[in-house]
């Protein structure tokens, strides 16, 4: 009996575990997921310092606008040791330099008139102006980045500011990809009668790389137990194994049988979805094994809906299922009840909201529709008719800022 779409995906995410953490150089962790919280090893800033180039003074000395004697200079990278601001005096100071004892305000240079060894303060002065106080950004031992955070340039800056050279992040999975079928040849090889190019392996490898995984192409297994078992056993050394084709009901569809023979526990085979019904999932020693249909459209759609969330969880991400956006159907859609349908759609913004239209013939043999699609509308199993103007849930497969704008 086939699983429902929701139950199949829930089962996958229940069984898949996060990979161990690894220590990675700072510049190589962009986009990775932090494996443990980061606490500040010191206050930031580490000392009171000037936010401007100007003069460190006492606010009470600025009320009369009498010239102040300049009796010190603190450059960026300098020290305030031995320097203090006393009545009637000022210390020239650069941005980032520590403020001297006695100073309670820094006056930017543009609000002063410097004349030899004296400076006149112009304008209103308030205590605390242009002084960055020790610990005002982050205090020592404060949690600054929580575990599970995706490391962006802002997080990299914070980590570098605290002297981190390496960071503990969740490992990225090695994903073995195996294509099956006597009819397949590799790209660039001569095509004989009845033969087709092994394109699935490359689209799946690209999808794995796009999300940060490490694809391992196993080549082509022929439609016999010996060839399948040999290559499947190699693939089971990786963190994840994906097979394509050979999971339907034909005489040569042996993948599920061979997977069981080599010890893979099958958790489901067939899902009530279109396209992609002959999709299977299992485990071998805790490692996930996905068996996807051989049709290129079906393999890409089932990767998006089943494999991608699993990989994201393995890499430590907290949000593993893409959020839905609401889009209005441009045309009416009719489907059969009993299966969730993944409708390939093109989404545009017409100025009043998102509008989704079919990206073309929804036959699973029409690969061109994936080129024109930037979303997958998920149509519920129990519904048959969807009217133009009705809102549907869409998983975007292109960035929101890449959406076309209708004119």
Q: Structural class of the secondary structure composition?
A: alpha/beta
> Any guess at the CATH architecture of the largest domain?
3-Layer(aba) Sandwich
CATH class of the largest domain: Alpha Beta
Helix content: 10-25%
- At the fourth level of CATH, the homologous superfamily of the largest domain is MoaB/Mog-like domain
Q: How many strands?
A: 29
Shape: elongated
Biggest sheet architecture: 6 strands, mixed
Low-confidence stretches at least 5 residues in length (pLDDT < 50)? Answer: 400-407
CATH topology of the largest domain: Molybdenum Cofactor Biosythetic Enzyme, Chain A
Output mean pLDDT: 94
Indicate how many domains the architecture comprises. Answer: 4
Arrangement of strands in the largest sheet: 7-4-6-5-9-8
Strand and helix map with partners:
Elements: H1 5-15, E1 21-25, E2 38-39, E3 49-50, E4 54-57, E5 68-74, E6 89-93, E7 105-108, E8 112-115, E9 118-121, E10 131-132, E11 143-145, H2 153-161, E12 166-170, E13 174-180, E14 184-185, E15 196-197, H3 200-211, E16 214-221, H4 225-235, E17 240-244, H5 255-261, E18 265-269, E19 273-274, E20 280-284, E21 287-292, H6 296-314, E22 325-329, E23 333-334, E24 340-349, E25 354-358, H7 368-372, E26 375-379, E27 385-386, E28 391-396, E29 404-405
Parallel strand pairs: 5-6, 13-16, 13-17, 14-15, 17-21, 19-24, 22-25, 24-29
Antiparallel strand pairs: 1-12, 2-11, 3-10, 4-6, 4-7, 5-9, 8-9, 18-20, 20-21, 22-28, 23-27, 24-25, 24-26, 26-28
Helix pairs in contact: 1-6, 3-6, 4-5
């Amino acid at each position: 009996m086939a699983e429902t779409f929701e139950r199949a995906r829930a089962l996958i995410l229940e069984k898949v575990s996060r990979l161990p953490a690894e220590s990675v150089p700072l510049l190589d962790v962009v986009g990775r997921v932090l494996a443990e919280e980061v606490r500040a090893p010191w206050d930031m800033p580490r000392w009171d310092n000037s936010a401007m180039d100007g003069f460190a003074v006492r606010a009470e000395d600025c009320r009369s606008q009498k010239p102040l004697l300049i009796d010190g200079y603190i450059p960026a990278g300098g020290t305030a040791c031995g320097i203090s601001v006393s009545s009637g005096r000022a210390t020239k100071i650069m941005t980032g330099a520590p403020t001297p004892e006695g100073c309670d305000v820094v006056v930017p240079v543009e609000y002063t008139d410097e004349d030899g060894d004296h400076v006149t303060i112009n304008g209103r002065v308030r205590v605390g102006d242009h002084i960055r106080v020790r610990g005002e950004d982050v205090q020592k031992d404060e949690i600054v980045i929580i575990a599970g955070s995706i490391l962006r340039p802002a997080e990299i800056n914070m980590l570098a500011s605290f002297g981190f050279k390496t960071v503990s992040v969740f490992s990225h999975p090695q994903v073995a990809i195996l294509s099956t079928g006597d009819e397949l040849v590799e790209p660039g090889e001569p095509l004989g009668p009845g033969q087709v190019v092994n394109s699935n392996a490359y689209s799946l490898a690209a999808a794995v790389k796009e999300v940060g995984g490490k694809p391992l192409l196993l080549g082509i297994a022929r439609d016999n137990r010996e060839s399948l078992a040999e290559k499947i056993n190699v693939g089971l050394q990786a963190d994840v194994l994906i097979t394509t084709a050979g999971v339907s009901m034909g005489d040569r569809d042996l993948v599920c049988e061979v997977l069981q023979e080599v010890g893979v526990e099958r958790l489901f085979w067939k899902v009530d979805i279109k396209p992609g019904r002959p999709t299977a999932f299992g485990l071998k020693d805790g490692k996930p094994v996905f068996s996807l249909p051989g049709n290129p459209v079906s393999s890409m759609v089932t990767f998006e809906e089943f494999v991608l969330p699993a990989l994201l969880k393995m890499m430590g991400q907290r949000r593993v299922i893409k959020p839905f956006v609401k889009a209005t159907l441009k045309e009416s859609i009719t489907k059969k009840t009993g299966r969730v349908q993944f409708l390939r759609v093109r989404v545009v913004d017409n100025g009043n909201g998102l509008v989704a239209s079919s990206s073309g013939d929804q036959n699973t043999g029409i690969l061109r529709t994936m080129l024109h699609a930037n979303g997958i509308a998920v149509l519920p199993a129990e519904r048959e008719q969807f009217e133009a103007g009705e809102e549907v849930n869409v998983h975007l497969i292109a960035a929101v800022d890449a959406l076309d704008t209708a004119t």
